[in-house]
Specification:
Radius of gyration: 27 Å
Helix content: 40-55%
Number of strands: 5
Distance between the termini: 37 Å
Strand content: 5-15%
């Protein structure tokens, strides 16, 4: 009985028209909020792109655009983290945690740098994935970005404003650096943490949520293949957190709106709540309401 009582309360609440109207108002306000915040965040990164565009010239290619984007990301984020690291910034930090928040605070350290750079590169329609580097025996010790240029996924480490050049002067990918760390380690800045030796990498933690995460990987593998699933970066799907919340709320709001309309029809339009909600009945009773007449339940064919 204890488990049935909350369900009964919930059913009664959703039969209460006043509660449904309140819930509709709350969700509509939330939809406007997330839409405005999403629009604001898009504007921020459009402005960053405009700044980078102003520094491009005719000799720039996709490689150099990606590097200049990383340089801009580093200048924007460096030295902010220490200011906001221990601050209590409320639900924006702990619940929503948008890319705009990372841009403003760098509170996520390398995670913030990677998220912001990935979002900037997305404005150039450059495919990206956020890589969780293995160091000290565990994954996620350090986050970097990989950008697809041609058929090569180049490595960009915005935390250190670092990219690697191969002996042929082209930008290196993770396997290049992993295979010859002695060579590439000579290119790191003086403040680089030597523990980040490009031992291994993953792009999504497929064991984070037991049962659900492995099942999600299996499902994705059916569509794109196991090899591509292994390099699939889930985080890049949620760059605009506000937009994700907006879509979730829309999915919740549509059935709630239908339930509310049904309740309004039964209580405000139909002469009896026992009348079934059909298109024919809706049209019929709305016409009668507009004509200012009211029939009794027995005088209508349901």
């Amino acid at each position: 009985m204890g488990s049935r009582y909350p369900l009964r309360i919930l059913r009664q609440a959703f039969r209460n028209l006043y509660f449904l109207m309140f819930l509709n108002g709350f969700l509509v306000a939330s939809l406007f909020y997330f839409k405005m915040e999403s629009y604001y965040e898009d504007g921020l990164f459009a402005s960053i792109k405009s700044t980078i565009d102003s520094r491009l010239d005719a000799d720039d290619n996709t490689d150099s655009v990606a590097v200049k984007a990383m340089n801009t990301c580093y200048r924007l984020l460096s030295n902010k983290g220490s200011t906001f690291y221990n601050s209590n910034l409320g639900p924006e930090a702990d619940v929503l945690h948008s890319t705009a928040f990372d841009l403003m605070t760098t509170r996520g350290a390398c995670g913030s740098y990677s998220q912001v750079l990935a979002r900037i590169l997305k404005t150039y329609h450059i495919p990206v994935r956020i890589a969780q580097m293995k160091a000290g025996g565990y994954f996620g010790a350090h986050n970097i970005v990989e950008a697809e240029v041609g058929s090569n996924w180049i490595v960009l480490d915005p935390t250190y404003n670092l990219c690697f050049h191969r002996p042929d002067s082209k930008l290196a990918n993770f396997n290049d650096v992993h295979g010859d760390w002695n060579y590439y380690s000579k290119q790191v800045p003086t403040d680089y943490n030597p523990i980040y030796r490009y031992e291994d990498v993953r792009y999504t933690n497929w064991s984070k949520i037991p049962i659900i995460s492995p099942a999600a990987k299996t499902l994705i593998s059916l569509f794109i293949g196991r090899e591509r699933a292994n390099t699939f970066s889930m985080r890049t799907l949620f760059m605009n957190t506000y937009q994700v919340y907006l879509y979730v709320l829309v999915a919740l709001y549509i059935p709630l709106l239908l339930v509310t309309i049904r309740g309004l029809l039964k209580t405000k339009v139909f002469p009896s709540p026992e009348i079934p909600v059909t298109i024919r009945n809706v049209v019929k009773y709305i016409k009668l309401r507009l004509q200012g007449t009211q029939g009794t339940p027995s005088s209508f064919t349901h």
